Q: What sequence folds into this?
């Protein structure tokens, strides 16, 4: 059985940064593959983002356990009492072992991106509890009078709880229905008034027509009487 010598403290005894070697895949996970280099006890991780220039969903799509792959050491760091090695497969031609990133531009960009991602994880959002008290200055709940920032004429209120939201919503629906009913009543009233107005105007126009007809008939009767009288007068003269 092969005996491994004790690993030196710190980063000594590890493969040099940006060096290229051929190693064996000893473990495949969803997020990447662990590769062991000959002559080193420490394994390094090839993350899925470092396996190919195209997007990789699962490391098993690219490598299998026991497979020999070319890697480039792109990261060495100590976290507590653990040493972490980061490898890259996309920076090396898997057929010839040629360095595809000789100036280490891609490696530095990836290292910068990983560092920014780690820094953002520490920015946690803290939520403060709402105090069960009423401010004597503004009359609102949730803060003390000494912490009140309200100005004259401005009022602040807490958002309603989920349990109170349903009755409030039902009340709004009821008021909406009531306003709709009032609107319908007003429309009906206006329609009825319009009909009455039309009927009044039609009745007045019909009465005017009757009056005109009556006057016309009266005038015609007078003319007929005059004609008859004139005829009688003529007949008397002839006799």
A:
């Amino acid at each position: 059985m092969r005996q491994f010598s004790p690993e030196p403290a710190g980063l000594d005894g590890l493969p040099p940064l940006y060096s290229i070697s051929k190693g064996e895949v000893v473990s495949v996970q969803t997020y990447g593959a662990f590769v062991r280099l000959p002559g080193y006890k420490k394994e390094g991780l090839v993350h899925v983002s470092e396996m190919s220039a195209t997007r990789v969903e699962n490391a098993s799509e690219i490598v299998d356990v026991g497979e020999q792959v070319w890697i480039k050491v792109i990261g060495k760091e100590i976290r507590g009492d653990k040493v972490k090695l980061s490898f890259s497969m996309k920076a090396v031609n898997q057929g010839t072992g040629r360095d595809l990133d000789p100036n280490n531009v891609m490696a530095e960009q990836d290292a910068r991106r990983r560092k920014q991602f780690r820094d953002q994880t520490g920015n946690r959002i803290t939520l403060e509890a709402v105090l069960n008290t009423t401010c004597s200055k503004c009359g609102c709940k949730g803060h003390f009078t000494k912490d009140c920032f309200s100005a004259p004429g401005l009022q602040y209120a807490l958002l309603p709880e989920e349990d109170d939201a349903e009755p409030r919503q039902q009340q709004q629906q009821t008021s909406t229905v009531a306003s709709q009913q009032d609107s319908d009543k007003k429309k009906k009233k206006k329609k009825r008034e319009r009909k009455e107005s039309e009927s009044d105007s039609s009745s007045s126009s019909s009465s005017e027509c009757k009056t005109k007809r009556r006057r016309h008939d009266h005038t015609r009767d007078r003319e007929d009487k005059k004609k008859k009288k004139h005829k009688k007068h003529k007949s008397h003269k002839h006799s």
